[in-house]
Amino acid sequence: xxxxxxxxxxxxxxxxxxxxxxxxxxxxxxxxxxxxxxxxxxxxxxxxxxxxxxxxxxxxxxxxxxxxxxxxxxxxxxxxxxxxxxxxxxxxxxxxxxxxxxxxxxxxxxxxxxxxxxxxxxxxxxxxxxxxxxxxxxxxxxxxxxxxxxxxxxxxxxxxxxxxxxxxxxxxxxxxxxxxxxxxxxxxxxxxxxxxxxxxxxxxxxxxxxxxxxxxxxxxxxxxxxxxxxxxxxxxxxxxxxxxxxxxxxxxxxxxxxxxxxxxxxxxxxxxxxxxxxxxxxxxxxxxxxxxxxxxxxxxxxxxxxxxxxxxxxxxxxxxxxxxxxxxxxxxxxxxxxxxxxxxxxxxxxxxxxxxxxxxxxxxxxxxxxxxxxxxxxxxxxxxxxxxxxxxxxxxxxxxxxxxxxxxxxxxxxxxxxxxxxxxxxxxxxxxxxxxxxxxxxxxxxxxxxxxxxxxxxxxxxxxxxxxxxxxxxxxxxxxxxxxxxxxxxxxxxxxxxxxxxxxxxxxxxxxxxxxxxxxxxxxxxxxxxxxxxxxxxxxxxxxxxxxxxxxxxxxxxxxxxxxxxxxxxxxxxxxxxxxxxxxxxxxxxxxxxxxxxxxxxxxxxxxxxxxxxxxxxxxxxxxxxxxxxxxxxxxxxxxxxxxxxx
Length: 647
What we know:
Layout: E1 3-5, E2 13-24, E3 33-45, E4 50-54, H1 61-69, E5 76-81, E6 87-90, H2 102-113, H3 120-130, H4 146-158, E7 164-167, H5 176-191, E8 195-199, H6 205-208, E9 213-218, E10 221-226, H7 231-235, H8 248-256, H9 262-270, E11 276-278, H10 285-290, E12 313-315, H11 329-334, E13 338-339, E14 345-346, H12 348-369, H13 373-390, H14 392-412, H15 423-461, H16 467-496, H17 503-530, H18 533-552, H19 563-569, H20 573-586, H21 605-611, H22 619-645
Parallel strand pairs: 1-5, 4-8, 4-9, 6-7, 7-8
Antiparallel strand pairs: 2-3, 2-5, 9-10, 11-12, 13-14
Helix pairs in contact: 2-3, 2-4, 13-16, 14-16, 15-17, 15-18, 15-20, 16-17, 17-18, 17-20, 17-22, 18-20, 20-22
């Protein structure tokens, strides 16, 4: 089924016949089995209400929330009416920049969401005071409690004042008191004119009664939709009586968490799989209208076995959803029917007018809320540099690593750079330097970047910024520290090994090391953006191993290496780096090396270069190859981020 969205802009959320299908693959190359998670559920969540999606584990709670919010679009079908530009999604895990303070995170949110910065401080203070976080504004996010982190997640989204909030398990990991405080806060926010929808597994009796509406799922079907205090009379329609000392929330979840689907089918038929909302007789219709649930002209009776109870069931959906065929744009404008702002069907010239009006409104909203890409880039670059500087221990560890390894290399190859009888030591020296840089720069982002990707996914989905400014800021912010660390390592190694005192040669030596560093980091970031830390730790060495094998292959029979293998070796940036370093150290008409033996075959550097069959290799070609490989891995990084941040 094709997924459609209504034109009408609204603070309510309505959906009809929503399906969600996932494919379970047993083997990577073998086609999997399609599994239906949501089975055509319908329903609505109204403005001014705190609504909860409940159900046992595996019922489809998070799947429905993801489908409605747009956090997941692949495999989703059906009709959904929601103003996505006016909504936000808060994940179960509170992903924050842990090294930034509450105030810095709020400033980041304001800079990226508010075009006018004049009211920024006022907005921050007001939001933090309302969420009882103002006294913690100078505390870093990693020192906040679980409840404070959840409130911070809400505060960061409140900056843009969206009318629709989706929260996945907001009480997960919180104690009963903190969980109750969190739900009370959400209830207060709903009363201020917002639509708040959250998933919750099995709330306590206290928390259960804070909700204005609950939507219960079981095995992908809606088994109840209505007020919390109406659960007991609803169950009586199929002769089920809640035990006296049972919480209604516990009882209905217990009924749904069973292998016997008979009760689930009966309850789902009663609600017409969410199309009907249960309103017992004692709740007056005036109360319904005040809460914005339904109006008199939309009340219809249930067609299932409960005709005698028809006055208890009302239509949950007020929107007239239409399946529109895929046709050309011109035909769609002139001939197709569309929904008017009040949900009725219109056609012809009126359809054209309605579409143009809706399009114009979207354009105006975009212009009003859009933050330029350059501003996004500048804000993100500033924050990334601040994060790197705040991470003092990792900085000290990395700097110490490069200095200590540089000293070890310097001691191992001390004053051997001018020895004509140590040809194999010279090759080991060049290979060791390239391997050290490559392996270090690959593994660091593999271990650190996956946690950053989760934050990027959340922030890009909630429209903090677009991916390209982030990608450019990420690339630029890492360059200065890479340069500092690698220059420290290469300087110590070069001068201690006794290589020629020629500054131009030293600069070329460092330039090659930096190019290898940039290529390796791009590869590490691409792996980190694609895999988790656990999987990336296995994939990283697996990927780099062939590059290392190609790097050391055939130096003792270089002239006999087949042409095809030579082409393949050019794909290894480690091999390219080693060849470039050998050319830098022994090329460019270097003077003869010292020889303490009777005869040193390789005392003339030209002999060594000819033996390695690289006398026709130009340094410009090597830098061009490294540049192409760097662009390739950086492109993979961007595509992987696009994939991970997509829905």
